[in-house]
Structures are given as structure tokens and as C-alpha cells.
Amino acid sequence: MTDHINRTDVRERLRRLDEEYDIEYQEEAEVSVDPATFPEEVELARSGYLGSSYVWVVRTPSQTVPLSESMAAVEEKRPRVLMILGRGGHAWGIPGGGRETGETFEEGARREVCEETNIECKLTDCFGTRYEYRSAPGHDEVLHMLRVVFTGEYAGGNIAIQPGELNGAAWFAHRPSQVHPLARPVAAVWFEE
Hints:
Blueprint: E1 3-5, H1 7-20, E2 25-32, H2 38-46, E3 51-59, E4 80-86, E5 92-93, E6 96-98, H3 105-117, E7 120-135, E8 141-156, E9 166-172, H4 184-190
Parallel strand pairs: 1-8, 2-7, 3-8
Antiparallel strand pairs: 3-4, 3-6, 4-5, 4-9, 7-8
């Protein structure tokens, strides 16, 4: 018999997000996990881990720090979005990460953005969700996980990356050539192609 771990909790949180936000993008995905690492994921899920959340943080030209006197005057005309480059990765993604016990997805998203990039943000909406059914060959468990992407506004701070997690972070006015799969749906809507 299959053990569905966190199904009720994840569905309840997804229902709350559906009621609270006008979600533009929703996806469901079956994810096959390496059987060797799956027991660690099962243990984490049984301890209350339900998923992760991220923020598409936008900074307007008026929020840009003025250039120093030695820099040529350049008028910034386009809003920019904060993107990160993970360790070992080559695709630019969205700052965020795992929700901790007792946090809402919103609280986790804001905390993770600040921890990873030193940028404060204000959430404005929920862009989308990805409901994952995670399983592994030879195991009877199915883990229910939720990935949530919020949109947000820059509220302060200067980029200072968390070295143990990131290789970089930057403000982008144009879509980078490599975009992480989780960021692709919101990038397709936000960046002018």
C-alpha cells in the first residue's frame, strides 16, 4: 500500500493560496527521485517539510542606487529583476528556498531571499505553483511537495550573496541566456522577448 506523505497538508496550503491569490500559473508534476537519496527526502517530509517558495523581486529605476561620481551617467529606464546563480549551476534562477516548520510559504520566501541575497522584498502576488508527487523505484512512499513562486517588490538592501549557497546574484533588465526551469514560466511573462 502506498503511503502518501504530507498530501493533506500540501493540499490545504494550495487551497489557501488559491483562495488568497489570483494564481496565473499552476503545474502538477510526477518527479522520480534517486532511490539512494529518497530515504533522506522521506525523513525530511515526515518531519514537516512541505516544499519551498521563491520571489520574483522587481526593482524599479527609481529604486536604483545613484552611481558614484567616477561612473558615467546612465539613465536606467527598465525595471530589473533579481536573479541568482546557484553553486554548480549555469542557469539563472529565482531566490528562495525551503519553508521552515511553522512558516507560511510567504514568510519562508521573504526570509530565504534576504538570507541568500541580502535583499528585502515585499510580496505582491502569487505567480504560480508546482505541486510535485515525488517517488523512487523500490519505495512505497509518495511525497507531496509544493513549490510556490511569488512576485514581489524591492524593499531595500544591496546584493551580498550567501557564499555557501550561491555563485552570484544580479539585477536583470533582459532575460539571461540560461534560465532555471522553475523561473521559466514567470520569465516568459515578464521579460520582453
